[in-house]
Specification:
Residues 214-270 form the 4Fe-4S Mo/W bis-MGD-type domain. GO terms for molecular function: 2 iron, 2 sulfur cluster binding; 4 iron, 4 sulfur cluster binding; metal ion binding; NADH dehydrogenase activity. Keywords: 2Fe-2S, 4Fe-4S, Iron, Iron-sulfur, Membrane, Metal-binding, NAD, Oxidoreductase, Repeat, Translocase. It is a single chain. By secondary structure, the chain is α+β, with helices and mostly antiparallel strands. It folds into four domains: 2-90, Roll (Ubiquitin-like (UB roll)); 129-207, Alpha-Beta Plaits (2-Layer Sandwich); 215-267, N-terminal domain of TfIIb (Single Sheet); 307-345, no CATH class. It has nine helices and 16 strands. It has a five-stranded mixed β-sheet, sandwiched between helices. Strands 10-11-12 form a three-stranded antiparallel β-sheet. A hairpin with an 8-residue loop joins strand 10 and strand 11. Helix 2 (75-90) crosses helix 3. The longest helix is centred in the last third of the chain and has 19 residues, at 288-306.
């Protein structure tokens, strides 16, 4: 263990930890834009600048030392923080009200903390790039006018998903997050898992048709046999979002494209709510009793003619686990193990 002092507060932490981790343990806030607890440290934004033993260092990369004295609120660090955030804002989209991350934006939080003022911003020349929003991905958009080049999406794609579909492209003031060959997202190797979108600190990567829930329901994804933990975002009687459950030991908050975005069928207008029976070549609505009687009679007819092995059942990942269990039990009770599921592994 190493003991250091942060803003005159004594902190003991494991050797090899960073100043940022020590401050977190002590409940001391240090602003940052490129740091994420799921990823390796990057040290690119320089917003976490603090003074350690009289020298300015980046808290997310500076290792702790026994007896170290750290000051987070000194003029030198504050100047660097303000300057960095001001430069980001000069190239950032000013329309926060229509942004999906409004009031939940890390840039807003940090700008407020470091003391960005209208007078200071009026002295700077804004040069927001005129770049079209990449709307090619069916689930989320990439708006580079809201990107702060923190690199979180790039590191997430590489370290979490192992795909590396994104990287920094071009150089200098033209630096941007791009796919290989600067292609549209839909034409890249992106798997649409949405992990980058979940970690994006601004609205650069945001859901299409974003709608905030008014409550969440803890559940388990039914798309395959892994059993990933999820939180269903509900608004009224509609499911409007899904996010991974970080406390679930199965997936630790990570989800695939189906688990994160495959929920629109729940409230879809084409979803069947009444059984259909084919009469004269066309499907017509029927009562549940009528439909079950028909299925039962067909089962008996097939078993009498060809035996129970001629029967088979196909279930769906869009049913609940309990429904799938009951269906499997029904098919096996008829004397056959011909059972399949669209999400088997």
């Amino acid at each position: 263990m190493v003991t250091l002092f942060i803003d005159d507060i004594e902190v003991s932490i494991e050797e090899g930890s960073t100043v940022f981790e020590a401050a977190e343990k002590a409940g001391i806030y240090i602003p940052t834009l490129c740091h994420h607890p799921d990823l390796f440290t990057f040290g690119g934004c320089r917003v976490c600048m603090v003074e350690a033993n009289g020298k300015l260092v980046t808290a997310c990369r500076a290792p702790v030392k026994d007896g170290m004295v750290v000051q987070t609120d000194v003029e030198g660090a504050r100047k660097v923080q303000r300057m960095v955030v001001e430069l980001m804002l000069t190239k950032h989209n000013e329309d926060c009200q229509t942004c999906a991350k409004d009031s939940n934006c890390k840039l807003q939080e940090v700008a407020n903390y470091v003391g960005i003022t209208p007078d200071r911003m009026a002295m700077l020349r804004r040069s927001v790039p005129e770049v079209a929003i990449d709307e090619s991905n069916p689930f989320f958009n990439l708006d580079r006018t809201r990107c702060i080049l923190c690199g979180i999406c790039i590191r997430t794609c590489e370290q979490i998903n192992g795909v590396a579909a994104l990287d920094f492209g071009f150089r200098g003031e033209h630096t941007a997050v791009v796919t290989m060959g600067n292609k549209q997202m839909a034409e890249s190797t992106c798997e649409s898992c949405g992990e980058c979108m979940e970690r994006c600190p601004t609205g650069a990567l945001a859901r299409k048709d974003d709608e905030r829930p008014n409550r969440e329901v803890k559940s388990v994804c039914g798309y395959c046999g892994v059993g990933c933990g999820i939180h269903l975002g509900v608004r009224g009687d509609r499911v409007v979002s899904v996010r991974g459950d970080k406390e679930n030991p199965v997936n630790s908050g990570q989800l695939c494209v189906k688990g994160r975005f495959g929920y629109n069928f729940i409230n879809h207008e084409d979803r069947l709510t009444t059984p259909l029976i084919k009469r004269d070549g066309e499907f017509v609505e029927a009562s549940w009793d009528e439909a079950l009687d028909l299925v039962s009679s067909k089962f008996k007819e097939i078993i009498e003619e060809s035996g129970p092995k001629a029967l088979g059942g196909i279930s769906s990942a869009r049913c609940t686990t309990e429904d799938n269990y009951a269906f499997a039990k029904l098919i096996r009770s008829l004397g056959t193990n011909n059972l399949d599921h669209c999400a088997r592994l």
